[in-house]
Amino acid sequence: MSTMTLAGILITLVVFVGLSIYSGTRVKSAADFMSGAGKSGAAVVAGTIMGTLVGGSSTIGTAQLAYKYGMSAWWFTLGGGIAALLLAIGFVKPYRASGSTTLVGIVAKEYGQTAGMLASVLSSVGTFINILSQLLSAAAVILVILPAVGTVPALIIGAVLMVIYVTLGGINGAGMVGIFKLTLLYITVVFCAVAVLVLAKGPGAFLSQVRALDQNFGLFARGIGVDLGAGASLIFGVLTTQTYAQAVMSGKTDRTARLGALISTLMIPPVGIGGILVGLYMRTVNDPETAKNTAVAMTTFIIKHVPPFLGGVMLATLLFAVVGTGAGLALGISAIINNDIIKKLSKKAPDSKRELAVSRLIIVIVMAVGVILAAVLGNTAIQSFAYMSMGLRGAVMFIPLMLALFAGGRVDRRYIMACITGGPLMVLIFGVWKVFTFDPLFIGLAFSLVVGLIGLIAGRKNAGRLRA
Questions:
Q1: 163 phi, psi to nearest 5 deg
Q2: Domains and CATH numbers, the chain
Q3: Cα gap 173→21, rounded to integer Å
Q4: What's the pLDDT score for residue 447?
Q5: pLDDT the model gives residue 381
Q6: 5, 38, 187, 224 — which has fewest CB within 10 A?
Q7: Is residue 25 predicted with pLDDT exceeding 70?
């Protein structure tokens, strides 16, 4: 790696860390750390959503999957954009009007602390799985920058950067750094996309090279059931993930929060195109390093085909894209554990400074456990963890959350407990026992929907008897 590449990396990292430290000086309480206390503008709301959603899976993971399946890799960012649109038009006001700090808190308020506690644990597990994909993505970048360090040290470095990113600034840090990161990330993916077309001697020549591989690289290359399931996992996962709810809750007004989500809708899907073009290009040229480890498709392309200083800036940007997503997810877990578990079990009076310290400690513990598991499961495809994570979160929370928001007081909590436990159980069972060609998320959601509808019908009948 050239001196100019290292200079680009170091300068960009210094700016990122400086912004994180600056945002940390504005955090005075746990409320500022977790929700921004309703102070964020539309840009920060959008920066938080995109800064968390557009990470390793959207860039490095997309290039990795595109190497084998082409346009099928777009479902992560395409589904993310659709989810942001639904968040803007249907969920900003209900989430903000709920009066709860967390989504799990909305469920607990309606159906009791036992349901809330169970949803807290299961949704945190689902979120944690996605942190593994971010740690693996971070290691893929770090190993290109520092090839001699080894996988485990690379994972540790990635985890430390995630802790620094979010323990200083919390939700505001995720938003402020997210805006800067996304600006550089757009420069990165656009430049890489253009570079691919130039190297391939134009779009027509590039398409001819892809077709010559004689393989299906369409939007449903993995099968309609699998790819639609991937998109659905993103949609339901985003709508039920604490981090994205925190983003809209941090907005100054409903209109500000909605505008931030709409900006995300427009900006998320295009990010995946750059990764897809890079992955396909590395497949057409049969790059030997990428063939051995498809996770390095994008980073290897940057090292080989981008001017050194700009390449260094891009590598640092990819690293912080991953770091921002992992850190934002860890912040969501911290919010759930602190607000929906520790506070409920603690007999001590609330103390803002103690809450802030506990929130930061939880993030450190989550990252430490993540490094251990990522080191053990390091050969798994990055996007596999991301889709699994989103699917589990959607199966746990979507139906109970919708019933709590839009059918309050009509469903007995026993039906909700069955939804919370049965939905993810169906996903796990049929994820292992692959008797269907479509994503098991649909089975989990169908189970929860049926149980929830039965509970809703039973509730109306009981209400009718009471009126009689």
A1: -65, -45
A2: 3-344+352-382 (1.20.1730.10)
A3: 8
A4: 94
A5: 62
A6: 224
A7: no
